[in-house]
Amino acid sequence: MAKKTKKVPRRGVSGNPARRAQAEQLLAEDTLICEICRAPLDWKTANGITSFSHPAGIKLEFEHRPMPTTGKPTPATTVCDFCGETGISASFVTAKQIVVPDVDAQGNPTGTGNGYDKRWVACARCTPLVERGNLAALLDRAAHMLGARHDLGEAQRARLRRDAKRLQEAFFEAEPTGPFPA
């Protein structure tokens, strides 16, 4: 009897011309940013209440609560969505909105989750990894870069890697198109 293999979703980016045209149009539009520092914002909805936060990799000049508005982020506040590095070289756009549910210690959904913009940016090192859909290399880079920046121990890095895996898998499942110039 033949062994059944688990179907692995295709990773990488779409080169579909129609999807590229839609993505380019979305990139030209304003995005959700902080009115104070002009950094892009993440958001979370729990029990019908939406809260906003600055991305994990960003270094703020001064601590402040995010003030959501729309506009163009400043290059100084834009970090790679995959590893947190500054110096963006490319943009990607997903076909679907990304919402990653929070999970408890046993991996069960908690009923809350984080929402992410369809527009993602990557540094020069992550861009080719995204293009090829190399999830393992992206996760290694995220754990190394973000772990070093925040001085995380091994257990914290393992959790960061697990959370990054859920997010980056959701990114690839959302059918990204790109790269586009940053």
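The record above closes out task 2.4. Task 2.5 opens with a second protein, given below.
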Amino acid sequence: MTVAQEFTASQTSAADAVTTAGQLPPLRLPLPTAAFARCDRRESGCQKRAGEAASAPPQDESALAWYRWLAGHHLAVGVWRLQLDHLAVLLEPHCSPSAAVAAMRSIAVLYDSYSALLLYSGSCAPEAYSAVIRSRMKARHAAFSGTWAREYERISLLLAELGRGTDDRLKNAMRFNRLVHMSVGRRLVPNGKSLLRESGGVPGTTTDADRDRFDEFFLISREAVCRHVLAAVLVDRVTLVLDDIARVPLDIEYDNDAVRRFQTDVPSHLATLVGAVGTWKVL
């Protein structure tokens, strides 16, 4: 069975959930190693090519759990793509000290945005996560893993190249991001095992088929689009997420004080992401 056939078969049983989750169009962007398409710099024209706008989040609890999982991952991929550009600046042979400081600050701020997205994506009840999200990922592949994301994989590679050359602000943001990730995971999966670990999979052995599965599952389409197109989509998604949080606030009782405090600031961190996108699109 091909990857495409596997995807179709695994999604058939969840068709109703997808339908009720509201319309969330595919996220369109190039591969992380590919350049963005050139544009004529007329931003309004680029935005018209951004495609169909996403609809408002659904009311149903199960559908909302899936919607938040998908929207959060779309934005996480966008955050990673922005981080990749700033990491490229850091790794330039003649990067000036001032440019390095600015790039590290931008990467750190984006890590905080990613932490906010983790809390948003994983804000459903553990029961809903098991029934609506984890079951669908497992149906897609027994070892389905977020580490299959192409942008995430690329960031790990570039951070390894960077080595110890990061400042305290960035180190703290990365450390806190890991804490948030673990806190969300412990709440949603009380037994503490990811699908990758549960299936006996080996981290770091990602294949092209795995990367394709991740993209297909999360409705990510690899296309030659310009920065303005991706920026318009990301701002649209953030706006919907902020409206969603205003309607159904995040009020999870995490066991870590720092994570609980950060949760109250999720809207401000996502608003900061809008500004980061605005700055990035004109690079």
